[in-house]
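User: Hello, can you help with two protein structures?

Assistant: Certainly.
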Amino acid sequence: MAKYNENPRQATSAPKPLLIAVPDYLNEALKKSLPEMPPGHVFNLYAPMWVEEPFGRKEKKWGLGEDIGVKFEGRGKYKRKLYDARPGGKTSVLQETSKDYSQQTQKLLSALIERQRTAAQKLESVFFPCRLISPLAIGLGNEHPVENGFSFLSPYGLPYIPGSGLKGVLRRAAEELRDSDGTITSKEIDSLFGPEDPRTSKDTSKTAEEFEAQRGALSFWDAFPDCKSMSLEIMTPHYSEYYQKNKSPHDQGQPTPIPFLVVPPNSNLNLIIQCDSSRLPESEYNWRGKLEQIIEYAGKWVGLGGKTAVGYGAFKIDEELKKKTEAEKAAAEEAKRKREEEARLAAIEAEKKRVFEERLSLMSPEEQEKALKLNEVRELLKETADSMKAYESYETNTCQDFNTAFNKLAAKCEELKSDILADALLQEEIKTVLGKIHPWVGKTKKRRDINKLKNSLFPEN
């Protein structure tokens, strides 16, 4: 890149500019697609910080947008310099990154969070729905031309908190709880988070010879803030000469406003943590209760990300979302139990059908005809039992279904009464189904029909 000079024809000691041939339509396509991109792609990949300027008669140069361009006004003794900030640059990058998420980006974020929730339920992980109380600044130390970076996860381009960073914050909170009121012991911390190397740890209870590296029981997932946009905050250092040039501090320094990216407060944040129970100190150890205490303390006194000393990164467990999540988990477990029960019953029915067909193949034609008729009774018994169960659950249009199924069963039982009385097993099946019909099922006439069928088949009862 050529060095900017008041006289473009004057030779400079700068290296020759690097020319890259890029079709102009790519630049136009990028301008159109930039508003649809996730913030991380805008910030890290396609940051609009370079601007094009005339350089000589036929040449052009590129530079950072907020480098100061020199401009003169007037002539002779009236000539003076005007400093003009060029358009684009660092401010444009931050403004473009902090715009509201596009609909496509919101769908991507929702799908990613939902996929995490589904996987967590299948793996029986612990789920803590939290809410940010203050802005979250994470990854400010990442290198970037705007001076302060941010943590975006590739290839999604979405802000995130790495699981390793979350583990470090919660371990520090656990250690502070240990030192303050003894809520948790060093042994419990080591079992949950893994022991720390004594050479880098503040804990002096163990020597380097006693140290044995091993993982803890807890595994921490990456966390994705559920927000609609990024936000901008500004830090204003007043003593840059003291910090950078080792000069004496004074109150006449030039403040330097520095904008940086944050996740806005009131954003939802799901903390998902797995536990390997085989690594716990005791089989009945209440690690969920301990972990919830640690998270509450970390959200109030430790914080996530950077600048926590001035209030950034505070969070808390959202009790309403927690109750909602627990209700959803209970509903999912109930649905899973029902599916398993339905699969079990389906397997039983399939086995019954297989055994019946096998027995049928060994019968004579007369016996087969009789067995098929009795099997019709069994099918009608099942249909009556299912409609009765639906009727008891107050499902719609099930009263008529029950009446229809029972009438078919009663007619078939009257038709095959002699055969039924000769089959003790089928009699027990009929007794079981009729015995489960509650007295309030159907109207008075229907109750009389039920009693009539019972007395017809089993007069001794």
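That covers the first. Now for the second protein you mentioned:
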Amino acid sequence: MSATPEKVLIVDGDDTFLNMVENFLVGKKIKVIKCPNWEQAIYQYNHNKIDLVIVELALQDLPGPVLAQKFRAHEITSKQNPGFIMVGNNNKNSGEEYLVKELGDMQFMKKPINPPALLGAIGQALAMAAERQKIENIQNKVLGPLLKSGKTEKAMKVAREQLIPMGTRGQFLAAKIFERGENYDEALEQLNKLYTNDHSNMQYLNSIGKIRLITGHVDAAREALEKADGIAPNNIDRLNHMAELYMALKDPEGSKKTFENLIDLHPENKEMKFDFFQKLKSGGYLQEARELCKSTTTPLELIRYYNNKGVIFSKQEKFKEAIDEYQKARDLIPEAKELYRILYNMALAHINLKNIDNIKIAQSLLEETVDLKPDFVKAQEKLAVTEKYLRPKKEGA
């Protein structure tokens, strides 16, 4: 990676700051894209090749470290490793500081920024990204294929002989290789050494917690993950593991709170919460699923989501699958007046199964629909047809 970026993305809610940095970098013949919020930042990052991101630590609605995690998790591999510079005021809180350290390979600069010092930070950020990419190439291009082809022992031998002597980066990657090879004891050995030498880096404690969860030591996993989250909140990967952990511990309230946190950290993903509702429900925690639904979703939003999925199945003549989707909405908001839309389409799906038992179910659903929406003419007409169909026929008729 060059010491000078071709294109820089600047994300900050302060127009004065955006313009100052832009003018300085353009004067150095560096292309700049300015964004005042996370929405524009994600759009521009997806549509441009960005070498370096300068982002406000306390960006409104989506903090800089959270945005950085999204960029590093990009579906396009070549976009996962830009350089990062976090910028902020002197009131940086300890949680943000620890999270930046945990994520690793990020520069931090206090406002107001000295433009000449910015050039030095840019060089350091790009060097960090290059070193990070080098390690990831070893993992993805050398060790990953060995593991996938079943050559686990060979991959772990490379980890022992070549990675561990490289220092903390190599040790941490070696631990990942041991974990992927299901050599959890050796993975924990490396991680415990790293954490003993640096208690301020939560990535080590986080990885220890993940392995404890994998190996079924849920209490130890909880202790490690909750401690790391308390010190460095808003690590998305950790929160996903914590939600899984709480489900394993039969602690639906813990899962619900973690899901709420994840929903807040993914404002761009409006459908994520529906998966969380179903995870709670399938785990036997329908009440918590309803509570999470109520706190994050309007009845119309929920109905629109499941109604659209059901309609797609119905158009494909997959009526049982459509009924399943409609039922999910019914389970989550059983008392909502707006549910009449779902009940009506659910009735139509039952009718299309062309079975007497399903038509009886459809009749009941249509009766509920009309109770909720007395002026729903189509439901009234369809109910009259089903009642006529189900009415006992007179002898000789």
